[in-house]
């Protein structure tokens, strides 16, 4: 698909009711209720705290694609993009009817509604659902497994969000979108099954390079059978991990949302039009592996307690009521050579103090700092 055409589709179909990082059942339920009859919406299970888990099925093609988001409750960007996708595909005048003729999609928009409500990675029993694929101790894990068994997908999209710390390789480039074709054995063998998911990722990467050059990464494929992706891949279902990451100053992940949407459409169009056999997998191997080389803010050449150092600040995401706040917290006071800041402030050797005029301390929260008598705000826009 032409990239400009996809961007136009996004602008015309973006779900305006969804914005920001805090997305819960309360936000998506009105949208699910308003979906046209061409999408079947069902409650497919309930969470630990008895919240409904929804499934949306649409399309009537032979190629079955299972997509689930917010397995980690605080990773919502892919959920927003799922509703943008549904708006696009379910329009009466859609030019993408070939996707639903070739594919059947089964979407679980929020697998972990308790975690979404509390804005936590884990579920209400403090279990990481992405480490529960084998034991299936949690109701949410059991729901996904039942749908997987019943739907018998040909492709799985495991949809996540990643922190701002990741770079696309050992460079000063944020990993704005990352992927993984999970391993299916301890040797991380590039199996025929993995090649299929690698081929689809390679297609998405080629598209994204036009929009965010050098800002796509892949994760280490170390095998962990307790992870859902590794489990499904080991059962010979091509599985793709999507990770929505950081774009410059986009802490609400609205630009990343667009990029994930573009990835959805590009990959589904490719699957719909092609018999994906893994023969075109090799470009995947050239995507750089993610490194942890970023902090949200670095104050360079700051004098702290008589020593010239760099000060590294990371935002702590904190839910206050129903508002998500980004709290600047000092995590490093040292030389940070080889580490990059999404925002960098040059102190030129001046002493840097907190708002009260005291020396900076590790693990302290600082909304602003003072450099050479100037107040500098550290929070996001």
UniProtKB/TrEMBL annotation:
Example of a GO MF term: metallocarboxypeptidase activity
Q: Which UniProt keywords apply?
A: Hydrolase, Metalloprotease, Protease, Zinc
Per the record, what is one GO cellular component?
A: extracellular space
Database matches in Pfam families? Peptidase_M14
Query: Which InterPro entries does the annotation name?
Result: Peptidase_M14
In what residue span(s) does the Peptidase M14 domain sit? 15-271
- Which residues act catalytically here? 243 (proton donor/acceptor)
Return the PROSITE patterns for the record.
Answer: PEPTIDASE_M14
Q: Which SUPFAM superfamilies match?
A: Zn-dependent exopeptidases (SSF53187)
Q: Could you tell me the Gene Ontology terms of the biological process aspect for this record?
A: proteolysis
Known cofactor(s): Zn(2+)
Family named by the database record: Belongs to the peptidase M14 family.
The protein, known as: Peptidase M14
Please tell me the species this chain comes from: Pseudotamlana carrageenivorans
Q: Which taxonomic lineage is given here?
A: Bacteria, Pseudomonadati, Bacteroidota, Flavobacteriia, Flavobacteriales
């Amino acid at each position: 698909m032409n990239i400009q055409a996809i961007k136009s589709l996004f602008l015309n179909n973006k779900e305006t009711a969804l914005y920001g990082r805090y997305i819960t059942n309360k936000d998506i339920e009105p949208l699910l209720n308003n979906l046209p009859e061409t999408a079947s919406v069902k409650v497919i299970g309930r969470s630990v705290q008895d919240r409904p888990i929804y499934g949306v099925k649409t399309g009537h093609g032979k190629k079955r694609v299972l997509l689930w988001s917010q397995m980690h409750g605080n990773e919502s960007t892919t959920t927003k993009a799922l509703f943008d996708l549904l708006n696009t595909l379910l329009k009466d005048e859609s030019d993408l009817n070939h996707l639903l003729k070739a594919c059947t999609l089964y979407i679980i928009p929020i697998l972990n509604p308790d975690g979404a409500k509390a804005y936590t990675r884990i579920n209400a029993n403090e279990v990481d659902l992405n480490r529960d694929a084998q034991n299936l101790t949690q109701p949410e894990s059991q729901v996904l497994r039942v749908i997987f068994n019943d739907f018998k997908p040909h492709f799985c999209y495991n949809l996540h969000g990643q922190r701002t710390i990741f770079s696309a390789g050992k460079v000063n480039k944020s990993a704005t979108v990352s992927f993984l074709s999970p391993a299916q054995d301890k040797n991380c063998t590039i199996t025929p099954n993995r090649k299929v998911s690698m081929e689809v990722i390679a297609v998405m990467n080629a598209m994204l390079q036009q929009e965010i050059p050098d800002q796509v990464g892949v994760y280490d494929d170390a095998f962990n059978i307790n992870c859902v992706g590794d489990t499904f891949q080991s059962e010979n279902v091509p599985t793709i991990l999507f990770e929505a990451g950081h774009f410059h100053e986009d802490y609400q992940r609205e630009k990343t949302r667009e990029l994930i949407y573009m990835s959805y459409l590009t990959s589904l169009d490719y699957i719909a039009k092609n018999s994906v056999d893994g023969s075109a997998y090799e470009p995947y191997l050239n995507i750089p592996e993610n490194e942890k080389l970023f902090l949200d803010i670095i104050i360079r050449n700051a004098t702290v307690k008589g020593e010239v150092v760099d000060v590294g600040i990371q935002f702590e995401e904190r839910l206050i009521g129903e508002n998500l706040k980004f709290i600047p917290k000092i995590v490093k006071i040292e030389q940070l050579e080889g580490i990059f800041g999404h925002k960098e402030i040059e102190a030129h050797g001046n002493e840097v103090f907190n708002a009260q005029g005291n020396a900076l301390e590790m693990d302290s929260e600082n909304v602003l700092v003072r450099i050479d008598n100037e107040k500098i705000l550290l929070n996001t826009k």
